[in-house]
Amino acid sequence: MRIISVLGCALLLAGCTFKGVPDPALSARDAEYMALVPEAEFDPHFARYEIADPTREAPGTIVVETKERQLYLVLPNGRAMRYGVSVGDEAYGWTGTARIDRKAEWPAWNPPAEMVRRWPHVHAMQGGPMNPLGARALYLSDRGRDTLYRIHGTNEPEKIGQAVSSGCIRMRNIDVVDLYNRVPVGATVIVR
Question: What sequence ranges are listed for the domain L,D-TPase catalytic (predicted)?
Answer without folding.
Answer: 60-192
